[in-house]
Amino acid sequence: MKRTCLYNGVVVLLATWACAQTGNECTFKRIIIREGAAAVAEGISNRKEVVGSYVQRNTGNVRGFYFLDGKYANINYPGALSTSPTGVNDVGDIVGYYQDSSGLHGFKYANGKFRTIDYPGGRNTQIYGINNAGQMVGAFSISSGEFGFVWSQGSFTRIHYPGSSRTAAYGIEEGGKIVGTYGDSTGASHGFSLINGRYSTIDFPGALNTSVFGINNNGVIVGEYDTGGPGNGFVFDNGNFLTEDDSKGIITTLIFGINTENQIVGTYVNSSGKQDAFRGNCAALP
């Protein structure tokens, strides 16, 4: 195992030591969607429910799925051109976004019913995460740019990393800590966390781009980074970055979600360019 430690200046408020290491603390298993030409798993609950989307072989349409105990069911917003579930909480509430002729819209699926949730005055609302308190995070666009948001108790609050060119909020844990990704003036991507109004940057040491996609209730963070070549999945725990790639993900591995048992979900692209969904177990995290 190779280990490299670099000093990482955290923008806005903090400065921390961040260490990166490569290893195989996580095991991976493909999620087989027989109808899917390509698939991605984006959310996992503490009850091991997995949600994601796939591209239908015959039509090329994007459809949502729910996966548990080796079985899956379709989740599709009625009349939508495409449906992409992205998050699920322990109550069974599912969030995501769908596309119709006017663009993208956020949704929440609970008790067998869909509800459209759009940022007021915004376009292309996408919901990416939900916690057990029902707080939701996502992104939207307006004429001045792309911003993140948090929805709580019926109200939206805009999220904009200071000085960024774009911001998206991807995950929220039980205590309200939010994680996501922002772009700088050069177009590079950086991860961030937000708690009690305070932003901190999360960058994989030596990476050109870092994207943070998820967080569990223990504060373990997941995402993807690149150093100019293929994308690599990572787990960030107690100040340590761990590179975790599916062995089949020759071109790229992205980790989108993690639960409190350190079970992860995501997608990889193999050497032939095929994209598959996976779930993994990172119980051996140090």
Could you provide a short overview of the structure?
This protein has strands at residues 3-9, 15-22, 27-31, 36-44, 50-56, 62-68, 71-75, 82-88, 94-100, 103-110, 113-117, 123-130, 136-142, 145-152, 155-159, 166-172, 178-183, 189-195, 198-202, 209-215, 221-226, 232-237, 240-243, 252-258, 263-269, 275-281. It has 286 residues and is mainly β. The chain has a single domain (3-281), classed as TolB, C-terminal domain (Neuraminidase, 6 Propeller), CATH 2.120.10.30.
Tell me the layout of helices and strands:
Elements: E1 3-9, E2 15-22, E3 27-31, E4 36-44, E5 50-56, E6 62-68, E7 71-75, E8 82-88, E9 94-100, E10 103-110, E11 113-117, E12 123-130, E13 136-142, E14 145-152, E15 155-159, E16 166-172, E17 178-183, E18 189-195, E19 198-202, E20 209-215, E21 221-226, E22 232-237, E23 240-243, E24 252-258, E25 263-269, E26 275-281
Parallel strand pairs: 2-23
Antiparallel strand pairs: 1-2, 3-26, 4-5, 5-6, 6-7, 8-9, 9-10, 10-11, 12-13, 13-14, 14-15, 16-17, 17-18, 18-19, 20-21, 21-22, 22-23, 24-25, 25-26
Q: What does it look like?
A:
This protein has 286 residues and is mostly beta strands. It has a single domain, classed as Neuraminidase. The chain is 0% helix and 60% strand. The protein is built from no helices and 26 strands. It has strands at residues 3-9, 15-22, 27-31, 36-44, 50-56, 62-68, 71-75, 82-88, 94-100, 103-110, 113-117, 123-130, 136-142, 145-152, 155-159, 166-172, 178-183, 189-195, 198-202, 209-215, 221-226, 232-237, 240-243, 252-258, 263-269, 275-281. The strands form six sheets. A six-stranded mixed sheet has the order 1-2-23-22-21-20, with no helix packed on it. The protein has a four-stranded antiparallel sheet with strand order 3-26-25-24, with no helix packed on it. β21 (221-226) and β22 form a beta hairpin. The radius of gyration is 18 Å and the shape is globular. The chain starts with a strand and ends in a 5-residue tail after the last strand.
